[in-house]
Amino acid sequence: MKINKLIIIPIASILLFSCAKQEDITVSLVEEMKVRDLGEKYATELLRTLKQNLMKAMNNGGPYNAIEFCSTKAQNLTKMVEEKIDHGIKLKRTSFKYRNPLNKPDKYEVEALKIFEKYYKEYGQLRPYYIQKVKEQDGKYYYRYYKPLVVKPLCLICHGEPEKMDRQLYAKIKEKYPEDKAVGYKPGDFRGVVRVSIPVKLLDKLQ
Ligand code: HEC
């Protein structure tokens, strides 16, 4: 008896100590619903802003002009929407086949992209969203909401089969993004995701 206690107490305290240090990364149903609503709202806001600006640039000088626009503005516009939303919420677009190396997926995004791809292969349609709770590089915990993006005919102008793309346009893309991977898509393909990171503390405040 005595020996058992001597062993069990230290083990139990080690377990308790390590549990207390590690934040629980499971997401409850109530949290999921809140993250989904907020995430969807902000992902849509980013997409709307990008699309409006893309269309404006296309109308002003065609896709050739729009490439100039995208390569200088897409990152800035994302930051601008982030600042407008505020509350420490962070936005990113990412894909396995990324054009801008700044959009390269991190390990959690790789996991999310794989889940969307697997679902797409199994069910022939896009999973509506995916949610994680992760510790980001700043040491804080965030919920991550992922919204999938589908390729539409318009996207092929800049993300289609290189042989079918405007030659001058493709040359310009390669000049701006020598490592470009974001071509060869067909309408209906899974293109990537918008990621919305929401601080855990923010969600707590909203309760
Ligand atoms: C006028 C050309 C053009 C069109 C049309 C276009 N894109 Fe892009 N796309 C770009 C450029 C340039 C980038 C790189 C932006 C950057 O530097 O962050 C990009 C980046 C992206 C990214 C971020 C990941 C990556 O590859 O770096 C996604 C996702 C994306 N595009 C999806 C789409 C979808 C979906 C459509 C159609 C609705 C579309 N694009 C239409 C030019 C275009």
Question: How would you characterize the overall build of this protein?
Answer:
By secondary structure, the chain is an alpha+beta fold. It has one domain. The protein is built from six helices and four strands. The chain has helices spanning 2-21, 29-85, 107-123, 156-159, 167-176, 200-205; strands spanning 90-94, 130-135, 141-150, 190-199. It has a four-stranded antiparallel β-sheet. Residues 63, 66-67, 70-71, 74-75, 93, 95, 98-100, 103, 149, 151-152, 154-155, 157-159, 182, 191-192 line the site of heme C.
Helical proportion? 55-70%
Spatial strand arrangement across the major sheet: 1-4-3-2
Rg, Cα atoms, Å: 21 Å
Structural class: alpha+beta
Give the tally of structural domains: 1
Order of H and E elements: HHEHEEHHEH
Between the first and last Cα atoms, what is the distance in angstroms?
A: 47 Å
Main beta-sheet strand count, sense and barrel state: 4 strands, antiparallel
Question: Quick summary of this structure?
Answer:
By secondary structure, this protein is an alpha+beta fold.
List keywords for this structure.
four-stranded antiparallel sheet; binds heme C; 207 residues
Write the layout of secondary structure elements.
Layout: H1 2-21, H2 29-85, E1 90-94, H3 107-123, E2 130-135, E3 141-150, H4 156-159, H5 167-176, E4 190-199, H6 200-205
Bound molecules: heme C.
The site of heme C has 24 residues, from helix 2, helix 4 and strand 4.
